[in-house]
Amino acid sequence: MKICVTGGAGFIGGNFVHHMVRKYPDYEILNLDLLTYAGNLETLKSVENEPNYRFVKGDIADREFIMDLFEKETFDVVVNFAAESHVDRSISDPGIFVRTNVLGTQVLLDASREYGVKRFHQVSTDEVYGDLPLERPDLFFREDTPLHTSSPYSSSKASADLFVMAYHRTFGVPATISRCSNNYGPYQFPEKLIPLMISRALAGEKLPVYGKGENVRDWLHVADHCEAIDLILHKGKVGEVYNIGGHNERTNLEVVKTILQALDKPESLISFVTDRPGHDLRYAIDPAKIEGELGWKPAYNFDTGIRQTIQWYLDNREWWENIINGEYASYYEKMYGNR
Ligand code: NAD
Ligand code: TDX
Hints:
Strand order of the largest sheet: 3-2-1-4-5-6-11
Number of helices: 12
Largest sheet: 7 strands, parallel
Shape: globular
Order of helices and strands: EHEEHEHHEHEEHEEEHEEHEHHHH
Helix content: 40-55%
Oligomer: single chain
Bound molecules: nicotinamide-adenine-dinucleotide, thymidine-5'-diphospho-beta-D-xylose
C-alpha cells in the first residue's frame, strides 16, 4: 500500500508519519509538504532513513506539480493534513487559508479522481460545527450537527469538507472525513495554546490568556488522533464523517494553571489580554460513532497526556527553542505586542 501523507512535516501529520512508518513496515509512506513556517523536517529525523519513508517538497495547491506527482507515484491512499491551521493567523490574513485549505484540497481531489486513488481521507476539525454555549454542558457536536463556522480558518476547513463530500457524491471519489477536537502532544508548533504556555512559563514570561480564560476546548492527545485515522483508513466506510474526541473538556484557564503547577511556576505569570475576535466559546465532541462502529478508544486522558507532553517539551528543548529563536520571535511581537 502506498500512502501520500500531505502536511507530514507539521504537528499532527508528523506524528502520523511516525505512527505509520513504525507500525506498517510494508507500506510506502510519502510525505508531501511545502515546509511553510509550520513545517519542520527536524520532526522527522528519527524516521528519515527508514526504507518505507520518503519526503517530497511541494505545494498541494500547485495543480501541475500535483498532477505530475500523482501520475508518477500511483498512490493507493491520500491523507490530507496539509493546511494553514492557526485561527489567529486566519484573522490577520484569510487569503492563504482559502488557497491552501480550499483550493489545495480541491486540487488533491482532482488528482485522486484522475489517478484512481482508492481512499482520500480529509483531516478536518470540530471547528466546522461552530461553538456550543458555555451553560449547556449537555450539548455535544455529532456528525449531523450543522456546519456553522466562526473564523476564516474554520470556514476554509468547512468549505474543504463540502468539496470532499461533493467529489464523493458527484464523481464517486472514495472519501472519508474525520473531525477531531483540539490536539496536543509532541512536536506542536509553539503558537498553539499548550506549547505556547509551556515555553513561556519555562522562560518565566507572561502567559497571554484571551478574555477571561473561560472558553472551553476538548483536548485529545495527538497519538489518539493518529490511531483513529489509522482505524478509519482500514475500517471506515467511504462517504462517512467520523468525529474524534475523548471527553476532556477544560477551560483555557484550567489548562494554563495545570501547566504552571506542573512546572512549579507562579500563577502571577498569567496575563489576561484582549479577546480573540469571534472567539468560539466551547467545543465538545460526541465520539459515539467512532467508538461504536470502529471500536476506537483513546489511550490518554488529559491528566496523563499533559504530563507526558510537558515532559516531552522539557526533554526536547532544542526542537522548540530553534523555532522560538527564529522568525517566530517577530510573529509573537506582531500578534501580542499591542494586545
Ligand atoms: P500544522 O500547522 O502544524 O502543520 C501543517 C503542515 O502543512 C505544515 O507542515 C505545513 O508546512 C504544511 N503545509 C501548509 N501549506 C501547505 C501546502 N500548500 N502544501 C503542502 N503542505 C503545506 O497543523 P496541524 O496542527 O498538524 O494540523 C494538521 C491538520 O489537522 C490540519 O488540516 C488541521 O486543520 C487539522 N486539525 C488540527 C487540530 C489541532 O488541534 N491542531 C485539530 C483538528 C484538526
Ligand atoms: O495565546 C493564546 N491565548 C489563549 O487564550 C492562544 C494562542 C490561545 N488562547 C485560547 C484560544 C482558544 O480558546 O486557547 C484556546 C486554544 O487556542 P489555539 O491553540 O489557538 O486553538 P483553537 O483556536 O482552539 O484551534 C485549534 O483546534 C482546532 C487548532 O489550532 C486548529 O487547527 C484545530 O482545527
